[in-house]
Amino acid sequence: MPFEIIFALFLYFPEDKSEYIPAAITCLIFLIAAIFTMRFIIRYSRKEAMKAKDLEEKILQKNQNTNSPVE
């Protein structure tokens, strides 16, 4: 019972549907920004993974060269 009263305070459905336009525009802006942010994070993560892989290969090659027996 108390929850219904509390939640009823936040519900508002305007009769003039043009009041939804600013909310829709704001939602669209944040959605586009979120998509670009995720794409940036994924792209940056791939670059960092490639750098780490290259560094790992260099270290492994260096270790193999120092551990190989001299003939």
Can you put this structure into words, describing what you see?
Helices cover 80% and strands 0% of the residues. The longest helix is centred in the middle third of the chain and has 48 residues, at 20-67. It is an all-alpha fold and 71 residues long.
Query: For the report, how would you describe the main beta sheet?
Result: none
Shape label:
elongated
Helix content: over 70%
Provide the residue-averaged pLDDT. Answer: 88
Radius of gyration: 28 Å
Task: Decide which structural class fits the backbone.
Answer: mainly alpha
Low-confidence stretches: none
Number of strands: 0
Number of helices: 2
Distance between the termini: 87 Å
% residues in beta strands: under 5%
Helix and strand run: HH
Throw out a few tags for this protein.
single chain, 71 residues, mainly alpha, 0% strand, elongated
Summarize the SSE layout with pairings.
Blueprint: H1 2-10, H2 20-67
Overview in brief:
With 71 residues, the chain is mainly alpha-helical. The chain is built from two helices and no strands.
